[in-house]
Task: structure prediction
Amino acid sequence: MARVYFASARVKKWKYSDSMAGKLETLLKTINLSEYFEPKEWVALKTHFGSEGAHRIIRPVFLRKIVEAVKAVKAKPFVTDTVRIKGLDYLEVANENGINHLSVGAPVVLADGLYGNDNIMVRAGDILGEIAVASVIHDVPAMVVCTHVKGHIQAGYAGAIKNLAMGGVSGSHRHCGWKCGRGAMHTIGEGKLVWDENKCALCLQCQEICPLEGISFVDNKFDYKDDLCWRCGRCTRVCPENAISLPGGDDENFMKSLAEAAGAVLSTFKPRKVIYVNFLTEIQPECDCMPAAEVPVIQDLGIMISDDLVAIEKASADMLLRQKPLPASLAEDEKVSEGKDILLELHKKPYRIQMEEAERIGLGSSKYEIIHIDE
Result:
């Protein structure tokens, strides 16, 4: 049975060891990083840099604690993410959100280069075939997957599986474009933006939100650069009239594709070289890649750490099930009642399929025990 260590966000003693930062230090000592990382070995801390306007990412103080713990076993950490917008702009966003060398105590690098197409094709599975894994993540020998648990409009639940699948894979490949990148998951191989002129109010929100500046309106007609588009779907999410759609596969195949892509990323590591830290804090309904952060729909719960991907994901999702929806949030707007699966009610996505598929293809075990380090 897999072990998942947990520290509550509640503070019952007014001293540093009972703070979230102090508890994270205890978690990292408990799992004993020296069993996973060798002296002088490079270790990637895979996180999400957020977006301009989206601030509910993992706080730099926590990333620094993980950096310090990795350094304590004489390994060499760095903080990384794949390109979500233009590379230089993304580094500026990371800096604005407090993630830089000075704050986290380690270099901050882009895993797939400034242009987001520095990657290596890796076999993924029956749905995706091959997928473009970011070259830095492909080549580094060890990794800590630092995940902000939250909702997601397409995945329903966004945890470590999605962090690996969407975050460890590039948006595009030099030769096969978005079809080899994370866009293949978003659309399951289809991927043509469809514009309904009769619905469009010409608000231009889609044009404003495109991270690659690929959307334009000439004579009030929608147009986009097909060869540039990463199929991220942001334009479809912000359209108030539902005038833009991005046809894709069914929910089941999408969830399974997340597991496949996560498996492709993990296949580039030897056994026991990856650990997972899930932050169940500021649990907002949408991804950190959007240009704003919503208020949380679930109260802060704490931090989990494990070396089993499926176990930590199932433990995180199971813990969310027992929570009350927060007032004055989207959960209240949607009239989610106590006792309901909040993220399922908000997004109507069968998100547990990604965990079931991850277990089926051998990425971990759904059988776990939670060890509370602060009890």
About this structure: The longest strand covers residues 2-8. The CA atoms of residues 152 and 286 lie 5 Å apart. The chain has two domains: 2-184+251-372, 192-245.
